[in-house]
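Q: Joint fold for the lines below.
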Amino acid sequence: MSTMTAQATQVYSVFIKATPEQVWDAITKPEFTEKYFYGVPVRVTPETFDGGQSAQGTVVEFEPGRRLVHGWRALYDEDIAGEPESRVTWEIEAQEGGLTKLTVVHDRLEASPKTAESVAGGWSYILSGLKTLLETGEPLVA
Amino acid sequence: MDDDDRIFKALADPTRRHLLDRLFERDGRTLTELESELEMTRFGVMKHLRVLEDAGLVVSRKQGREKLHYLNPVPIRLIHDRWIDKYTEHRVAALADLKNELEESA
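A: Joint structure:
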């Protein structure tokens, strides 16, 4: 397989056996995020996405249970932190059978190739962990 | 058919794996772009893309008048966590046990 050319728009999607409200809480409350978001307690308010030393950004859309859009400036690496802010969109959609579809779109990465490369594997890990946490109550890794 | 069945079935076809590799190289492509790289009719490519979308391996999004296709690696990650981690963990544990035994008896 050829090497990954980091994409300027990345889309990640997962079906979770949980309600949209539960998914929203798992995204926006630190007691949940620290169990799947690389151990980071993320705090989300209608104004800011505060991922501590991982990433920070201004919230531009805040619709509980439906949609969250915020800026993304990675802080965990000096090189990456110097790149322009990109954008993360979380879309939450109720599905049949008690399922909720969660889609993460990370875009505006054209001028931030290092960020694009760095987050490419990360989102799969995060969404897989988020699904496991909501469906089993247990973090993916102990 | 459950989620795992759909994913394994989708991956069991060489054309569909080829499509995933094309999207891995460059994401957000239209049907026309994907079709131009395959010796296949438009209908054939559409059919394969639909199987990949049903399995969640490809996500399509509208942008203006275009429908763009994106590789979604999350189901592969879930398969990895569910099937691969479980077995490699045992193998690693077995090797660690073997190492301990050998070192103790040395």
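Q: Anything notable?
A: The beta strands of chain B are 58-63, 66-71. Chain B is about 70% helix and 10% strand.
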